[in-house]
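Data availability excerpt. The first of two example chains:
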Amino acid sequence: MIYVTHLILPNRIAKYVEQLLLDLYDFPYNKRENYGSKRLCTHLDQFEVD
């Protein structure tokens, strides 16, 4: 199963969060601004998401 988090943010804050994620994490399809080196991946046990 895959769980996704959805946030509704004001435009200015959404742009800030987007840039922060691009700066911190390694996204393979982000070739132009791929500065991040951390992996954005979390593994949770089923009891943690229930």
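And the second chain:
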Amino acid sequence: MKKVVIHGATNTSNFGDILFAKMFYNQCQNLGLNTYFLNIPFYGIGKTCRSEVGYEKKLSLFQALKCDYLIMMSGGYLGEDVSSFKDTLKRYFRYVLWPNLFLMCKKSVYVLGVGGGPIESKWLRKRIVNVLQKADVVTVRDYETKAYFEQYGVTRNIYVTSDTAQIYSGIYELSLNSEMKNIMQELKEKNYKIIYLHLVSDEKKDSLINKNIVKALNKFIKTHPEYYLIAGNDSIVNKRIDEYESYQNITTSNKVGYKYSTSHDLVSLLNECDLVITTKLHVGILSASLGKSVLAFPTHREKVERYYKQIGESGRCLSLKKVNSDIVFNMLENYHDKKIVLSNEILKKAMKNLEYISLIKEKKGDNCEKKSYN
């Protein structure tokens, strides 16, 4: 049986990365591949990811290098949000060193559905380009990622797909935990529409949410009393929801805090909501894939805007630093009842990231059928 190692942002409780780990692991298992994650300090699979994926194996680096394939799973880890020497070294040791080691050992590397660029460090660029040049297959989730790495020197075929997480709800059956199920049942009985406000634990960002979004939300809910607000985050944190400045300043009594527990539980909750407001990527992506109305106010410099451009919904996405409460209120009025409908083409492209794994069973690489995978 072929042995496959999956790597990416697995040492985290972050919502999107956990979804990716789960989806890629299950796809490999379904194909009958002997599947592992890297088990190395700081950069290998973490406790939260292990629990959600249902993964109990342990694999040393020496054992990993004896495996046949390395899959670099989806995620935005080939781009820099901030540029610093420390961040460059972290990114190299966390993500880039390992595929380079596999390539040095003459192993096959598949890079599937990643986001990337810009990379300010020329030293880091060179090493990422080396991985992409020598990998068996490279797919990226948007044209901007492809353009960056072609600009940096990649000359091989890079296939543009879309974000893998968009097909999650088409694979897994959604189900709320008992507490939220009871709350949601009560709200539905009272004919409330539901807003999900995505909070982040960073105090500076929370202050911006409070300043630019909450004031607009208070005005909106006052004129639209049919809405009930649920506020929560997308990773495991010690901070209670009622400790967030933004939550404290939401004036309506029709609100409740949601404490994040698992990625699947959050997807199930988003499926019950009507309007989702987020500053990050994957809460918005999952909500879009579930046919919800989404407003995105990112703090990351590029990746969130790329997604809404790709699905033809750029008007729903403005930088949190560039909006004010009046702009946000107008966006709420304009979009609150306009659902996102993803095209079949986008969903098919998202699925391609997982379908490429079947090439491992077929012993094919970059010479795969171009017409089928473009």
